[in-house]
Design goal:
Length: 194
């Protein structure tokens, strides 16, 4: 790499990520954050159904099996679907910091084609935090957790409050979600990040 500076390069004053004391234990399965999330929700038949687990430090591991509905070229995963799998895994890092964050920027390198039926073994980690900005990377490997890297991403997530979703989401889905006290309780708890 050339050492070029982009929006994905943490500034010198950025700090190291700190695993929240209430983060899920390494290996613990992290359930879907929303049933109708295209990345992780069980209520989306053609969704990715990414299954994420807490990792060591401020990291996440996840698996995604490529299905027929995810093709771009014949028999191969669509690049946008692979970016979604990376994005979803990166989004789960909020559990380790106990903050809610959304993707601001996602830069993806495609290194190997990923066939239908392959399992993408994903790993994401936070590299630095600066204010609301969370710098992170993710890789997706095929053939096993130690297999060759097929996709790689550098990303910048931006911390937001629950109000981000309440103010911007479609009213029908927002009202249905707010009617679920468990969902609201979890989301609000993330806003307090001692
Ligand atoms: C309940 C849990 C939900 C979890 C969902 C996870 C799902 C998986 C992840 C996703 O797919 S999230 C969906 C895709 N992303 C979005 O829809 C985000 C759309 N963008 C926005 O809503 C706003 O642009 C955003 C909240 C990201 C930022 O707007 P703000 O007004 O809050 O922030 P602001 O513009 O003041 O920027 C704050 C800082 O971030 C920087 N920044 C913001 N957007 C950036 C960007 N795109 N690239 C680089 N830097 C960015 C900005 O320069 C600034 O840096 P400084 O503090 O140093 O000045």
């Amino acid at each position: 790499m050339s050492g070029r500076t982009t929006a994905l390069t943490p500034p010198p004053e950025a700090g190291p990520p700190v695993r929240h004391p209430d983060a899920p234990a390494p290996g613990e399965l992290i359930g879907a954050h929303y049933e109708y999330c295209f990345g992780c929700g069980g209520g989306v038949p053609h969704g990715l159904h990414v299954e994420a687990r807490a990792g060591e430090g401020v990291s996440i591991t996840a698996e995604f099996r490529v299905k027929e509905a995810h093709q771009g070229a014949p028999g191969l995963a669509h690049g946008g679907v692979l970016a979604t799998a990376l994005d979803e895994t990166l989004g789960s890092l909020g559990w380790m910091l106990r903050v809610i964050a959304v993707t601001g920027r996602l830069e993806t390198d495609y290194l190997l084609p990923v066939p239908v039926d392959a399992v993408l073994h994903l790993r994401a980690e936070v590299t630095a935090v600066h204010g609301r900005k969370i710098y992170c990377t993710a890789t997706g490997r095929i053939g096993g957790p130690e297999g060759p890297v097929a996709v790689h991403a550098e990303a910048l997530f931006i911390e937001v409050k629950v109000d981000h979703f309440i103010e911007n989401g479609r009213p029908a889905e927002i009202q249905a979600t707010l009617a679920n006290p468990d969902q609201v309780k979890v989301a609000r708890a993330f806003e307090v990040n001692p």
